[in-house]
Design goal:
heterodimer, A: about 240 residues, alpha/beta, six-stranded mixed beta sheet, four-stranded antiparallel beta sheet, globular, B: about 400 residues, alpha+beta, two-stranded antiparallel ribbon, 13 helices, about 55% helix, binds adenosine-5'-triphosphate, binds magnesium ion
Chain lengths: ~240, ~400
């Protein structure tokens, strides 16, 4: 945290072993993201966007390189330590929502707090999170009783409920129509405005990318281009 | 994640697939039910057997001819042996001696006939075995001296011959074709479902020797000895043994007779029924094992089906032990429920067996002990834990990224 970077990654590589073949998904990525930045990661399919997101989100470890999340060296933590980091510092929003189908919206949002051991005020916080994404009147609905956009909003409520430092969204609007997609983007950008949450998007959509401040292009596991978006350039 | 939430979630997850959960439980239900029923029936049989053995009295000794095999010239037990045991100087711990010869007899009366066991006894039999009379009298000294053709009937024997167990004194029955006058009827002793003591008939020993069972000289089949008290049994055993050794001129370790006490019978019977119970219980336990494998199978399927869910839980902060606990809770809950239903089934089964046994005139009261219930509950939960362990470990060890990708 000392130098203001939430994410400080150096020479990150990721190699998948597929039998005899080694797949080099990332081949040396240096990345600095400051607190409160809004970043989108773009690039052709297979360029390593999701792989990078997984490492940034502590779901996976790099094969080599160092990675500091809020000043903590993450690369050599145990599985359970990583789980705790994800629980406290990272919120995920997936393309396919990934809600627990048998549980109510409320229970889905409470889930990260349960694993954090939060007991008092958990329900209240979950309701507030759902209200902040405009679902205060849907707390007892199950995912199959909600529209795609609403499901994704539940997922956002779940991601923000533990006040994470970063929210990672891997193609969050990929399964949604334009209008719901815009709403989702508005909610996520609002989080940044209200709480200063760092946002990282993976997207193929230039429209989405143009709403962020900084665009990182990946190609073949390397950073091809890292630039300010038009939105910032035009200011 | 706290315990009650975990439990609630496990219940929700199990009830979301009711049919599958029910079928999985069935294996454990049958396993536990079989174990419980087998144990209860085994215990019931044991109770019946030991009960009927206890009925013979705690201070009795049974002396029978024949002992260790090395004896070169075994002598039979005789009436004089029995007479010698009455000597309160050599055998102070002995208060009663009843020599007996036994044989199978056919009784008949007015077209009815009955095959049963007959005892040739002396009047001493009455105090030694605490015989009480329903009506009439027991065999007396005069009957022995006169080799009288009289018979004392067990109540069931009377019932079968006359259709009643009272008002039969003075009737003449035929035993092996010879006429015998009914002297009395004994009070029912109840008990054993195996050899019915109430079907026995008693005739004077001298009569039996000469007219029915034809024994060489004065040899007898058994001498029942009554010790002064239950505590005096071992002393009485010693006294009887040493007296008989002297009389038969045998060395120690080469006895040509054997002495059983009630304790010996009890021990043997308990050992046999224990072995039987364990054997039956063991066979039943195999079905419990099969039930456990069923749980493992379903839990593995469930882990595979819920791979993405596991990935998601890990992504939002579940540690290995959280996932492990989640699946272990489910599997032990399955087996615990199976166990509880199984206990009910086992109770039902053993009660049914008891009812059937009673209707067949076999006395068998299934005995379902609290320990068996506890054992079944603990064991079935342990089965769930054990067979749930591997699937739970598989779930806990899933890589979050791989799990989230899983289609
Ligand atoms: N578990 C894995 N095993 C083997 N190779 C993998 C694995 N995960 C990713 N890869 C490979 O790593 C490379 C990068 O994959 P990644 O999923 O990061 O791409 P992406 O940029 O997210 O693509 P898309 O836009 O299609 O989602 C690809 O070549 C992919 O085949
Ligand atoms: Mg991807």
């Amino acid at each position: 945290m000392t130098d203001g970077y939430v994410i400080k990654a150096d020479a990150i590589t990721k190699v998948y072993q597929m039998g005899q073949i080694e797949v080099h998904a990332l081949r040396g990525i240096d990345l600095r993201i400051a607190a409160g930045e809004i970043v989108s990661i773009m690039g052709p399919s297979g360029s390593g966007k999701s792989t990078l997101m997984n490492i940034v989100g502590c779901l996976d470890r790099p094969t080599a390189g160092s990675y500091y999340l809020e000043g903590e060296q993450v690369a050599d933590m145990s599985d359970d330590q990583l789980a705790a980091i994800r629980n406290r510092k990272v919120g995920f929003v997936f393309q396919s929502f990934n809600l627990l189908g048998r549980q109510s919206a409320l229970n889905n949002v409470e889930l990260p707090m349960r694993y954090a051991g939060v007991n008092s005020g958990r329900r209240k916080r979950a309701i507030e999170a759902l209200e902040s994404v405009g679902l205060g009147d849907r707390i007892d609905h199950r995912p199959n009783e909600l529209s795609g956009g609403q499901q994704q909003r539940v997922a956002i409520a779940r991601a923000l409920v533990n006040n994470p430092a970063i929210i990672l969204a891997d193609e969050p609007t990929g399964n949604l129509d334009t209008k719901s997609g815009e709403e989702i983007m508005k909610i996520l950008l609002g989080l940044n405005e209200d709480f200063g949450t760092t946002l990282i998007f993976v997207t193929h959509d230039p429209e989405i990318a143009s709403m962020t401040e900084r665009i990182i292009h990946l190609r073949d596991g390397l950073v091809e281009q890292d630039r300010q978006s038009e939105r910032v350039a035009n200011q | 994640m706290n315990f009650w939430q975990g439990l609630l979630e496990a219940l929700q997850s199990l009830s979301s697939n009711k049919l599958r959960s029910a079928l999985t439980i069935l294996g454990i239900v049958i396993g536990v039910g079989a174990v419980i029923a087998m144990l209860a029936i085994g215990r019931g049989a044991q109770d019946t057997i030991t009960g009927s053995i206890s009925g013979i009295g705690t201070n009795l000794l049974f002396v029978v001819p024949g002992g260790s095999e090395e004896v070169s010239n075994p002598k039979p037990l005789t009436l004089t042996d029995a007479e010698a045991l009455r000597d309160s100087f050599v055998a102070p711990s002995v208060t009663g001696v009843a020599p007996i010869i036994t044989g199978n007899v056919e009784l008949s009366f007015a077209g009815e006939s009955l095959f049963t066991q007959g005892y040739g006894v002396t009047p001493d039999y009455m105090p030694v075995r605490n015989v009480e009379m329903l009506e009439g009298e027991f065999i007396g000294e005069v009957h022995i001296l006169g080799r009288a053709a009289v018979v004392v009937l067990g109540p069931d024997a009377a019932e079968e011959l006359f259709g009643r167990s009272e008002g039969v004194i003075g009737e003449t029955v035929r035993i092996g074709g010879q006429p015998f006058r009914v002297l009395g009827v004994m009070v029912p002793r109840g008990g054993s479902g195996f050899s019915n003591p109430d079907e026995l008939i008693m005739i004077p020993l001298s009569t039996a020797q000469t007219r029915l069972f034809s024994r060489s000289r004065d040899s007898v089949d058994m001498i029942m000895v009554q010790a002064i008290s239950a505590e005096g049994v071992s002393r009485a055993t010693e006294e009887v043994a040493s007296l008989l050794r002297t009389r038969h001129r045998t060395a120690i370790g080469e006895d040509d007779f054997t002495i059983f006490t009630q304790q010996d019978f009890l021990q043997t019977a308990t050992t046999i029924t224990n072995v039987l119970t364990i054997f039956l219980g063991g066979i039943a336990a195999i079905s419990l094992l099969v039930g456990g494998i069923g749980i493992m199978n379903i839990m593995l399927v469930s882990v595979t089906e819920r791979t993405r869910e596991i990935g998601l839980r890990k992504a939002v902060g579940a540690r290995k032990r959280d996932i492990m606990l989640q699946f272990l809770t489910e599997s032990s809950l399955l087996s615990l429920m199976g166990g509880l239903i199984g206990i009910a089934l086992g109770w039902g089964l053993s009660t049914l067996v008891g009812v059937i046994a009673t209707s067949q005139d076999v006395e068998l009261l299934p005995n379902m002990g609290l320990d068996a219930i506890l054992l079944a509950t603990i064991f079935s939960t342990a089965v769930g834990l054990f067979f749930g362990l591997y699937p739970a470990k598989r779930a806990a060890d899933l890589e979050p990224v791989e799990a989230l990708r899983y289609e």
